[in-house]
Design brief:
Rossmann fold, seven-stranded mixed beta sheet, 7 strands, 10 helices, alpha/beta
Length: 265
């Protein structure tokens, strides 16, 4: 169990599992940020491009550079890019792309908690930003608010206590309002705000809920891939029995994220 690592093997698999919800959340986050139009953005940990797409659709940027060290996700973003203002590079914290004059908005959607040292990441994000610009992030509330994952991990732990170590709610104490606020303030950012954003994750059927867990991309699917066929079937039945459905068979759950922003000196 301790040897299980998060796998980010395929952009299409990530889209089915988390990307579709990232794309629902991204416009809400962009709206919350209230960044001026016609400025330059850096999207740190861009994944398959959900935030970059939302910035182009709703914020009228001069440009958006998305960067991520996961090659399959960047390739997916490039292949599906339809806006000339977008560009994507394979790079992560420690080698963030720079721009003469800096970026006016340096942001990260659903990636900050996966970085080895979030404090270093925020400092580097400030270093590539222009004076008085905005540094921001948004992360899922894995402990209490991301319910489709909360149901999964509660079911997994009920039959395998070792799964608790892989539960994002335990792994990522950063994904809480007080921790995010402290991180941004302690990093020297001013005018720090942290607020919740909620969407609904609606699954057409139990199969629509369960199938993405079998694709091996992301923490929970990586755990499922480590299970033998019998244990996997038991976990599936437990979830199928516990998840409430609407009259039409849909499963509708709340997903809460925390959005945080601060101003560079």
């Amino acid at each position: 169990m301790p040897g299980i690592r998060d796998q980010w093997a395929a952009g299409s698999s990530y889209e089915d599992f988390m990307g579709r919800w990232s794309r629902r959340l991204a416009p809400e986050f962009v709206s919350w940020l209230r960044i001026a139009r016609g400025v330059h953005w850096l999207d740190v940990g861009c994944g398959t491009g959900a935030l970059s797409d939302a910035v182009c659709s709703y914020a009228d940027p001069a440009s958006v550079v998305g960067c991520d060290p996961a090659i399959p996700l960047v390739e997916f973003a490039r292949e599906h890019s339809r806006d000339a203002r977008q560009s994507f590079v394979i790079a992560g914290v420690g080698s963030l792309p720079r721009r003469s004059g800096g970026y006016d908005s340096v942001t990260s959607l659903l990636a900050l908690n996966f970085l080895p040292d979030p404090e270093d990441a925020i400092h580097e994000m400030q270093s590539v930003a222009s004076p008085r610009s905005t540094v921001s992030a948004c992360v899922w509330d894995y402990g209490d608010g991301m319910l489709f994952l909360r149901h999964f991990w509660d079911a997994a732990v009920s039959q395998d206590s070792a799964a608790s170590a892989l539960d994002e709610g335990n792994r990522f104490p950063l994904c809480r309002r007080d921790a995010l606020t402290a991180l941004f303030r302690d990093s020297g950012l001013k005018e720090v705000r942290c607020e919740p954003i909620e969407i609904r994750t609606v699954f057409a059927s139990f199969d629509d809920y369960w199938r993405p867990f079998l694709a091996g991309t992301g923490p929970a699917p990586s755990y499922v891939a480590s299970l033998g066929a019998n244990h996997r079937a038991i976990l599936m039945r437990s979830l199928e029995e516990s998840l409430r459905r609407g009259e039409d068979g849909t499963i509708s759950l709340t997903a809460r994220a925390w959005a945080v922003r601060g101003t560079v000196k």
